[in-house]
Amino acid sequence: MRALIFTEGGSQIGLGHISRCSSLYDELLDREIEVEFIINSDTSQIEIIKNKQYKVINWLSKEFLTNYIKQSDYCIVDSYLASQDLYLVISNQSKKSLFIDDNGRIEYPEGIVVNPSLSTEAVKYPINDTNCYLLGTKYIILRSPFIQVNRENINPQVKEVLITLGGSDIHNLTPSILNRLGNKNSEITFNVVIGSAFNNIEEIKSFSSKNINFYENVSAREMKSIMLRSDFAITAAGQTIYELLATQTPFIPIKVIDNQHYNLLALKECNLIETALEYNDTFFSEKLIFEFENLMKFSTRAEWVKKYKGVIDGLGSRRIIETLLSGEIMEKEYFLRKVKDEDIFDVFQLSNEDYVRKHSINTTKIDWQDHKVWFQNIIKSDNQVFFVVTDYTDRFLGQLRYKIEDKSAIVSISFGKTIVGKGLSKELLKKSIELIYEERNELENIIAYVSNDNIASKKLFEKVGFILHESNNSLFRYVYSFK
C-alpha cells in the first residue's frame, strides 16, 4: 500500500499546504503506510519536511500522473493550481482519492472532499452520491505538537509578541511591522519567525536590536514553544491561525493572499476575532497599531484565551486518514449517542446552516455567545434528551433533541448534508424514539412542529407514524402516540 500527497508551495505561494499535509503524512506513517510528497515548487530544499520522503517536480500534467500513480495508490491532493481534468485523472488512476479544499474551487470528481475549516457555512458543496464531505472543526489539520495544548497562564503585562508571516513574506510586511512597533516598544521582546521561502531575510535582520529575536526554519515543537511564550501574535491568516487557536494565543490576523478570505470569514462568524487587517489597506499601519494597543490590555487577551479553548481538538488528521483508509461512509454504520460538551461547535455550525434555519420556527442566525449559554443549559437540563448522529469515526452528522413537557416530548431534528437524501432519516428518527422511550417510559406521545413549506419533514414524520392533529397557516402539529 502506498499513499501519495500531491501539493505545492514556494516563495510566492507560501508553504501552508505543505505544512498541513505534513500532518497527514505523519498520520499515514504512524500506520506503517509508505507515503511520499509530490511537490510543485520553485525551491528544491523544503525545510519543514526535510526528514520526509518527497519529490520536487511539476506534477501538473496528465502524462506524469498517468505514469506515476498506480491503481493500488491512495492519493491526497491539496492544490490551488491543478485543473479539474487533473483531479479527474488522479481519481480514475488511484484506488481512492481525497481532495483538500478551502473555497469550493472546482466541482470535484469521485472521492473524499475535506474542508478543514472553522465554518461549514462559507462554502457550499453540491449534494451527490459520488463525494463524501468532511467539513468543519473536527477536520482541522494540526501538526502533532499542537494537539490538545493548554495555555497555563496569562501574563498581566505583555512581555513577548510573536510575528509570523508564514513560509514566505511575499509582501515584505515583516520589516514594516518591526519598523512601526519594534523601537517604540523596547520593553517587549519580539519573536520574529522567518520562513524558508523568505526573500527578504537580510532586510529583516537589519532590524537588529536587544528586544528582537529571529527564528529561522523552526520546527513544529519550536513554534509551539514560541507561541506559548508569546502573549499575542501578529500573523498571516493562513494555516498558522489554527495553531494559534490550539495554543490559545491571541492574534492579529492579516490577509496576505486572496485564498485566506474564507479563513477570516469563519473567524468572524465564530466570534474568534473582531477585526482582520489586509496587507494593501491604505491605513494598514494605523489599524495595526490600534489592534496592537488593544491586545496590550490584560482583559482583552484573557477574553480571547477563554474563547479559544476547546475550539479545535486536534484530531482532524486522524479522522481524515481513518475515512480515507476505511472506505466510504457505510450506510449501516451510523450511530446515535448522547450529546457531549465537545459537540458544542458542531451543533452551532449545523444549526446555522441556511437550509436548517429556513425551516426553523426562528429563522434568524444564531449568535455564538448566545449558543454557548443555550448549549450549557440544554445539556445540564433534566428536561432535555439530546442525541447526535455519528459515523464510525465519531464524525458529527446530525442531531435529534427531545424537550420533555409533562408526558410529552417535543422533537427537533436537523441532519448534515452528508446524510441528507440517503434515506436514513426515517431509521434514525425511529431509533431515537426507541431510545427515548427506554429512558422515559412515562411518555405518552411525541410532538413535532413542522413549517408548512417543509415537505420533506412532513413526509418523514408521516412515514414513522406521526399523525397530523392540527395546523394553522404556517405550522403543522404532528403527534406520535406510545399508547
Automatic annotation (TrEMBL):
Gene3D superfamilies: 3.40.50.11190, 3.40.630.30, Glycogen Phosphorylase B
Matches recorded under InterPro entries: Acyl_CoA_acyltransferase (IPR016181), Glyco_trans_28_C (IPR007235), GNAT_dom (IPR000182), N-acetyltransferase (IPR051531), PseG (IPR020023)
Catalytic residues as annotated in Swiss-Prot or TrEMBL: H17 (proton acceptor)
GO molecular function, one term: acyltransferase activity, transferring groups other than amino-acyl groups
Residues holding substrate: R143, E243
Domain of life: Bacteria
Cited Pfam families: Acetyltransf_3, Glyco_tran_28_C
Domain spans labelled N-acetyltransferase: 334-483
Cited SUPFAM superfamilies: Acyl-CoA N-acyltransferases (Nat) (SSF55729), UDP-Glycosyltransferase/glycogen phosphorylase (SSF53756)
Listed PANTHER family: GNAT FAMILY, PUTATIVE (AFU_ORTHOLOGUE AFUA_3G00765)-RELATED-RELATED
Matching NCBIfam families: PseG
Protein name as catalogued: N-acetyltransferase domain-containing protein
